[in-house]
């Protein structure tokens, strides 16, 4: 959407206080939690926290990243930064094998 549109979306959410159940009310919440749980069961991620806590951390961290990106007028690669954040939280087993 671009940094300017993203700012407007966040401003709208702040003014309307319309996301009180974030992230649980988001479109893909259940799917994300199921995917995290499946990855945990398959030992693909090393984070030992419950899937719901991991999901909350991912949603909060990436939302914060999106806010920062929009405040900074899109000055960094949002996809790359969010990917790094998600990998840090999940602790993918494959990445730890490489180190």
Describe this structure in words.
- It is built from five helices and no strands.
- By secondary structure, the chain is mainly α.
- The radius of gyration is 15 Å and the shape is flat.
- The termini are far apart.
- 6% of the residues are buried.
Overall mean pLDDT stands at 89
The largest pleated sheet is described as: none
Shape: flat
Which parts are unreliable, with pLDDT below 50 for 5 consecutive residues or more? Answer: none
List the defining traits of the structure above.
5 helices, mainly alpha
Q: Layout of SSEs?
A:
Blueprint: H1 3-16, H2 29-41, H3 51-71, H4 78-90, H5 93-98
Helix pairs in contact: 1-3, 2-3, 3-4
Task: Put the structure in a nutshell.
With 99 residues, the chain is mostly helical. The protein has helices at residues 3-16, 29-41, 51-71, 78-90, 93-98.
């Amino acid at each position: 959407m671009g940094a300017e549109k993203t700012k407007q979306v966040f401003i709208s959410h702040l003014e309307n206080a319309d996301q009180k159940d974030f992230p649980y009310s988001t479109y893909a919440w259940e799917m994300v939690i199921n995917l995290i749980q499946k990855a945990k069961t398959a030992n693909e991620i090393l984070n030992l926290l419950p899937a719901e806590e991991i999901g909350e951390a991912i949603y909060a961290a990436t939302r914060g990243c999106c806010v920062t990106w929009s405040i900074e007028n899109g000055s960094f690669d949002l996809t790359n930064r969010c990917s790094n954040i998600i990998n840090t939280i999940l602790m993918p087993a494959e990445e730890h094998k490489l180190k």
